[in-house]
């Protein structure tokens, strides 16, 4: 990857609000109403409310009863600190997540096809391994070929398929 496109993963903060809202707006401007890996940033209007929720869900003592311990990160391009993506890492799977998996991610529409998703997932694999996870499970709609390629580039192995919202999705595992 070109060094100009190097990224770091950072947890959201209050001073990232304007950049985060611009990031979300770009998805909406492209007609995308769902931002995978965003911990409902696409549904919660108020940034402070969303920030409070993701911060609470990142700590065992404050994680919501109906959720699992989760870290959410913005992917920042290092040379200009632009948010190019968002990714979350769920450290365990509950009944709701058993098909969906340990993480989700999205890349800003204007920044796609530059390798960011592959790099984001690679960094999440490193973090997951550091936290003792032995494998990551991910699911992807069968027709989302860019995401399938991202998972395969990170060592993903097809496990099974399931149907969600009338779409076929595939489940992959990545050994860490």
TrEMBL record:
Pfam families: Acetyltransf_1. Residues 16-176 form the N-acetyltransferase domain. It comes from the Bacteria. Signal peptide: none annotated. One of its GO terms (molecular function) is acyltransferase activity, transferring groups other than amino-acyl groups. SUPFAM superfamilies: Acyl-CoA N-acyltransferases (Nat). Coiled coil: none annotated. Keywords: Transferase. This is Predicted acetyltransferase. It comes from Hespellia stercorisuis DSM 15480.
